[in-house]
TrEMBL record:
Sequence similarity: Belongs to the CofC family.
Protein name: Phosphoenolpyruvate guanylyltransferase
Record organism: Salinispora tropica (strain ATCC BAA-916 / DSM 44818 / JCM 13857 / NBRC 105044 / CNB-440)
Keywords: GTP-binding, Nucleotide-binding, Nucleotidyltransferase, Transferase
EC number(s) from the headed UniProt entry: 2.7.7.105
Single GO MF descriptor: GTP binding
Length: 226
């Protein structure tokens, strides 16, 4: 059981969040995206999505640590170089166990789980969502994906298990488990990329520096509003 960290409710502590980001092995990841970029290796696209996600989390003003849960060596190397702490995928039993393991490693404090397929993510939108999760009721909070059926972010206050229910209609599953929705105007946070159409939508928002060149766009991270 996690317990409140010092200053957890005082509003004066800004970098309070540990964000857990599980990433599947690249040879198995993002299977619905296979073939979306003809002539580009699928693993390169899956890696770029994850690294852009992690870099945006690292740049988020309220995040203390990014914890990547993966058994993929290329993901571990690239996200570690981007400033993440990397732990193995334990018990190697799928996404929700990986989230639970990451939350356990994170220990006491504010913990959020985030999917690794948010290549347009802007740090300011993540900061706004995480700050909203610290205000009001002390329930777990979740941010639905753009269609509203899935989940991109699940947050828990100190002392409360993350209790992830990702996969399928996870927005409904998180609501049924007592989590409350956060519905701010955060298009880049809600834009997860599962299909070629999702990648086109993310491209319109502005891709991160790793995914953009693979997609033939020139939108560097530095030129995006953070
Ligand atoms: N560590 C870890 N991460 C996972 C696992 N399964 C999914 N993920 C990650 O969870 C996030 C959301 O999952 P999905 O959107 O379903 O991604 P996916 O399973 O790679 O994609 P599909 O093969 O198209 O279903 C992605 O960023 C994945 O990398 C897992 O078993 N272990
Ligand atoms: C795992 C999830 O993502 P997706 O539906 O995008 O695979 C989810 O939304 O819970």
């Amino acid at each position: 059981m996690r317990v409140p960290a010092p200053g957890w409710q005082d509003g004066g502590v800004t970098q309070v969040w540990t964000v857990v980001v599980p990433v599947k092995r690249l040879d198995a990841a993002k299977s619905r995206l296979r073939g979306a970029l003809p002539g580009r290796p699928h693993e390169a696209l899956a890696l770029a999505l994850a690294v852009d996600t992690v870099e945006a989390v690292r740049a988020c003003s309220v995040v203390a640590e990014v914890l990547v849960v993966t058994d993929d060596q290329a993901v571990a190397a690239a996200t570690g170089a981007a400033g993440a702490r990397v732990v193995p995928d334990r018990p190697a039993a799928g996404l929700n166990p990986a989230f639970r393991y990451g939350a356990a490693v994170a220990g006491d404090g504010w913990v959020a789980g985030l999917t690794a397929d948010l290549p347009a993510l802007r740090p300011v939108e993540l900061a706004a969502a995480l700050s909203a999760a610290r205000s009001g009721p002390t329930n777990r909070r979740y941010v639905p994906d753009a269609p509203g059926t899935g989940t991109v972010l699940l947050a828990a206050p100190p002392g409360m298990p993350l209790d992830p229910r990702f996969g399928g209609n996870s927005a409904a599953a998180h609501a049924a488990s007592g989590a409350l929705p956060l519905l701010g105007d955060w298009p880049s946070l809600r834009r997860d990329v599962d299909t070629a159409a999702d990648l086109a939508a993310a491209t319109r928002l502005g891709l991160g520096a790793h995914t953009a060149p693979l997609c033939g766009t020139t939108t560097p991270t530095a030129s995006r509003p953070v």
